[in-house]
UniProtKB/TrEMBL annotation:
Source organism of this protein record: Streptomyces antioxidans
Bilayer-crossing regions: none
UniProt-recorded name of the protein: Glutamate racemase
Cross-referenced Pfam families: Asp_Glu_race
Any one Gene Ontology molecular-function term assigned to this protein's record: glutamate racemase activity
């Protein structure tokens, strides 16, 4: 079984790691184009063009499913991706985990890129799934880029700024950008208030990986007995490459590293 994932950069690592945990025997194809980041400020047409490029590069490897592990691409490019690739290749988008977060009653905060924050797309999800729940939309300028480059100072500054915009009484934070899941512990530490119950964080990686398996009718757990880890193919800007070194600064990248290709 082969599963492909695409994103602008290393934001696909959380979903890839979730898939590796669910099905360690699955071959993974990771397609991204980090030289074109960030995608958030681009026009919808520009995002769609870039997303189609990443998707086509992944589809050439004949996966059973394609996960669009990027909120921005899911917002702007999902219809075009599905129109071109389905039904031959199921395409699974990423949706911020607003519905499960709101089920806890709130108050909740949604951390997202400035382009997504306040967008009709996100407001629609809030209306549909968090009606009656106190919701604060928190823009996080610079955080995705800092995570992409493992810029510790940049991450700390962006997280601190977003935490300052987050009401002190929130009980739940939705991570509305796939890159943010790579620094979930740092976000939790910044938002957690002394003597308050532990903050609940909601990402999308686990749910997206599970949905991809459901779409292709695959068991979400590996078979009994020893399992040979699946292969990992990395595509950067349409060309096969090694797993970027920056990925190894995160636990999700390290989980994938033992099966990373050695070619440059």
């Amino acid at each position: 079984m082969k599963i492909a994932l695409m994103d602008s950069g290393i934001g696909l690592l959380p979903a890839a790691a979730a898939m590796r945990r669910l099905r360690p025997d699955a071959d993974l194809v990771l397609s991204s184009d980090p030289t074109t980041m960030p995608w958030g400020p681009r026009t919808p047409e520009g995002v769609t063009e870039l997303a189609l490029g990443c998707a086509r590069a992944a589809a050439a490897h004949r996966p059973a499913a394609l996960i669009v592990a990027c909120n921005t691409a899911s917002v702007h490019a999902l219809p075009a991706l599905r129109a071109e690739l389905e039904p031959a290749l199921p395409v699974i988008g990423t949706v911020p985990a607003i519905k499960p977060a709101a089920a806890g009653g709130g108050p909740i905060a949604i951390w997202a890129t400035p382009a997504t924050t306040g967008s009709p797309y996100q407001r629609g999800l809030i209306h549909d799934f968090a009606d009656g729940v106190e919701v604060t939309e928190v823009p996080c300028p610079g955080l995705a880029d800092a995570v992409q480059h493992a810029d510790d100072e940049g991450i700390d500054a962006a997280v601190a700024a977003a935490a300052a915009r987050t009401p002190r009484d929130v009980t739940t934070v939705v991570l509305g950008c796939t890159h943010y899941e790579l620094v979930a512990d740092r976000i939790r530490a910044a938002v957690q208030q002394p003597d308050a119950p532990p903050i609940v964080l909601h990402g999308s990686a686990g749910a997206v990986a599970a949905q991809a398996l459901r779409r292709i009718g695959a068991d979400p757990f590996p078979p009994d007995g020893p399992v040979t880890p699946g292969a990992l193919t990395v595509i950067l800007g349409g060309r096969e490459a090694a797993l970027p070194e920056v990925a190894l600064t995160y636990a999700e990248g390290v989980l994938l590293a033992p099966v990373a290709p050695t070619r440059a």
